[in-house]
Amino acid sequence: MSTLAAPHPAIYAARAEFTGGRGYLAACTVGLPTRAGRAAVIADLDAAAAGRPDPKAYSAAVERTRDHFAALVGVGSDRVAIGSQASVAAALVAASLPDGGEVLIADGDFSSIVLPFVHSGRGLRVRTAPLSRLADAVGTDTALVVFSLVQSATGEVADAEAILAAATAHDARTLCDATQAVGWLPVEASRFDAVICHAYKWLCAPRGVSFLTVSPALQRDMPALYAGWYAGSDPWSSCYGREVDLAPDATRFDVSPAWQAFVGAEPALALFASLDAGVLHAHTTGLARRFREGMGLKAPRRESAIVTWADADGADLAALTAAGVTASGRAGRARVAFHVFNDEDDVFLALRALGR
Predict the structure, then answer these.
(1) Of 215, 246, 208, nearest to 41 (Cα)?
(2) 61-71: per-residue pLDDT in tens?
(3) Rounded (to 5) percent helix, strand, coil in the chain
(4) Which of 120, 255, 267, 293 could form a Cys-Cys staple with 83, CB 3.0–4.6 A?
(5) Counting Cβ atoms within 10 Å, is residue 220 exposed (0-12), middle (13-18) or buried (19+)?
């Protein structure tokens, strides 16, 4: 097996922001809370229990969290809508398409970005192709290409360059789900018409915090189907009646935020926004590479922080669990993920559990 270089000092510092992590190889399922996020949620609950909830402070936390995510993916905050579920964001994008429009989706992609197009009720023609051939499958009738940048079931990283080039050549828009990417893989959201990201995995936020980035062209065509008070230019002046001015930017697509979730999310996203994306990518993929080599698995076309292998009877997952390693199983495969709170000892722990 290859020898890993000593972790970057920034990785040591970031790791100190987590209480646990040893043997936890499931960031692709649920991220671990940061110390600051845990403290913020507890402090908020204590204040609320004592009769001192602060809605204005909640809104401030939401906006800081939006800013952190915007910085993470390289767009302005005015291009970022907040929400709670990926499927709601996907349904918004589906509503931007013409009736009967063709949507090309990667085979076996995550249901939350597939079903909103299948069940739009507007006759959208959904076609699928293997992720490795998705770019080749884009055609003259394709209105939108939908894919996860990193596949949940396999950890495969999409050839985003090829997909973007094919979409541009055929005048198709792109929807990229970056839920399994942002937090370890550098993402430039401005290159896509829409990017969806739920923050409870690699960004280590409480569940209930998601984001949708929107291009100017898509914003013009996408109706604010789920507009509520938080979609107004001034949410606190948009609480009643129909005479509400929606925000002039992507925040018109905001869904009323789950306040306590954002309280915990803000410190977590601040942490990841402060890290060098290249350093984090090198750390996570380096650990995954070391594990893959120890397992004798073939190297992927593009480096991934997620490693999966065939485990139809669940024996390997059971062995990992028995050894105190938290992993996951998806689509007949065992799955491990390496994040900032992991190190070489986690690699060796998992390999020993599997008799390697």
Answers:
(1) 208
(2) 999 999 999 99
(3) 40, 15, 40
(4) 255
(5) exposed
Write the CB contacts of 300 (distance below 8 Å, at least 6 apart in sequence): 155, 156, 157
Looking at the chain, the whole-number percentage of residues with pLDDT higher than 90 is: 92
Q: Which domains does the chain have, with CATH numbers?
A: 9-34+276-353 (3.90.1150.10), 55-274 (3.40.640.10)
At 292-316, the pLDDT tens digits run 999 999 999 999 999 999 999 999 9
Three-class DSSP category at 184 = coil
Query: Rounded to whole angstroms, how far apart are CA atoms 318 and 259?
Result: 37
Among 308, 336, 289, 250, residue whose Cα is nearest residue 69: 250
| Cα(42)–Cα(253) distance, integer angstroms | 30
Q: Whole-model pTM above 0.90?
A: yes
Q: What is the gyration radius of the CA atoms in the chain, in angstroms?
A: 21
How far is the CA of 241 from the CAs of 232, 252, 304, in angstroms? Answer: 12, 16, 49
Q: Which residues contact 102 (CB under 8 A, 6 or more apart)?
A: 124, 125, 126, 127, 139, 141, 142, 143, 144
| pLDDT per position as a tens digit, 123-132 | 999 999 999 9
Output the DSSP codes for 92-116. HHHHTSPTT-EEEEETT--GGGTHH
Token output for 335:
């799955």
pLDDT value of position 319: 97
| DSSP 8-state class, residue 65 | H
Give the confidence band of 5 by pLDDT, cuts at 50, 70, 90: low
